[in-house]
Design brief:
The protein is α/β, with parallel strands linked by helices. The protein is built from 14 helices and 12 strands. Strands 1, 2, 3, 4, 5, 6 and 7 form a 7-stranded parallel sheet that branches. Strands 9-8-10-11-12 form a 5-stranded parallel sheet, sandwiched between helices. The longest helix has 33 residues. The radius of gyration is 20 Å and the shape is globular.
Length: 361
Amino acid sequence: MIKIAHLASYGVNAGDNIASYNIRNKLEQIIDDKIQWTSVNIIPIHETRNNAEYCKQIFKKVSDSNDMLLIGGGGLIEGEHKFESFWKLPFDQETLSVVKIPIVTFAVGVNDFRNRNRMTHAGLQNIKKFIEHNSMFSVRNDGSKESLSRYYGGLAVEEVPDPGLVFGFEAEQKNKIKDGFFQPAWNSGEDIVIGRGLVPDNIKKLSNVLEQLKLKTIPHTPKDYKFPQIKKDSYCWSEEQFKNLIKYENFMDIFKHYYNFDYGIVMRGHGQLCSVGLNIPSIYFSTQDKVLNFSINNGFEDYNVDIREDNWDRLLLEKVDMLKNNDKYLSRWYEIRNENMKNYEKSFNSYCQRIKNILQK
């Protein structure tokens, strides 16, 4: 039996859940031995503000009881001056010193919010020490590699497709699309909300777009229910129902619900990534750079609208109309997606195979 401790965010965000799930699913497919998983939830650790003594105890136990510490996916690289580690993950030199097993970090994202940067010199030092301590380290394909290079220059960092792109199943390709959904993104931090451009005037414009297109709403996290001016009856589930669905043992029903729609307007990074993975044509409404950068870096720029563009609401309506009524525009989305998926799956599978090789040395 192989024992893997898996550090991630569980039961809060559908995108983080699916990233963790898809990694585990692939490793279970290719590794002959039974895997005993230990979920290490980042949320209680954050509640201690990454307290060093608490973290040393946690990861000493993890190290003593497992063959590997696996980290990811999700947006886990972010400065946080309020934490003792000065960044989102709970690792500094002291905590790393108690981890005697291989650490593998799988396609994590750099969270670059517009209007927020809590990165400090101490945080940057700890991130670099962490990367160097890993047996394998990779970031996801949403511009995170470029973000790290701005901090560290020539630091060699591997890029791997986000696990939310690789489901192993997908919706059928359609010649005509009709029914759509909206996948929102709301944050508790007012600075992030302002950085997203979600000021009252823009919220009103977005509300008009959603009303005009008669879109249902698929949230990814309970915070999305706080998005202003979205009608409560547009949500696919009540907030109470969703809080049960978002649990790690239930969340796959959220993504199965994507199949009830022909297209989407999506805001969150994993709304974007999962719609690609599930073969649901979408328009990507970028209010943070990772969504825009994924579109640019992966050939979907013509299917992206950024909130900083003039008349962005009109552009959203125009691009949705093209998905519905311009056969070439729709088929081109499928062509880009299908060509990308070959590379995503090859790279994702190769990375998993290398993890297997470490475990079976």
